[in-house]
Amino acid sequence: MNEVLPTSGSLVCRHLDLSTGHLPVAERDACELYLSSGGSAGRSCLGGPYGWMIYVPTEAEDVPQDVSSELAALMVQARKQDCHYIYFDRDGSIDETLPFYD
Q: Which residue, 61, 78, 70, is CA-closest to 24?
């Protein structure tokens, strides 16, 4: 089988896949606010009917000031695994080592 390599202009991004239960309720509400407000309020994210995808800044100092300490800790975990996003899905993985709010 031939290996397919990305072209020089491509960027492949990794994401940490977690259950929505790992996202604190206040952060879930902030994601829903962002989506319902058309992006004018709340937590910046991509969303759908089953969860949210949140960007993970490459540097800790670039994390928005209003991010909860719980979400900031998850971003640290994601950065350790070279992930650019955290995907919170209702059917996502449950990590027994992380807090669960559901």
A: 70
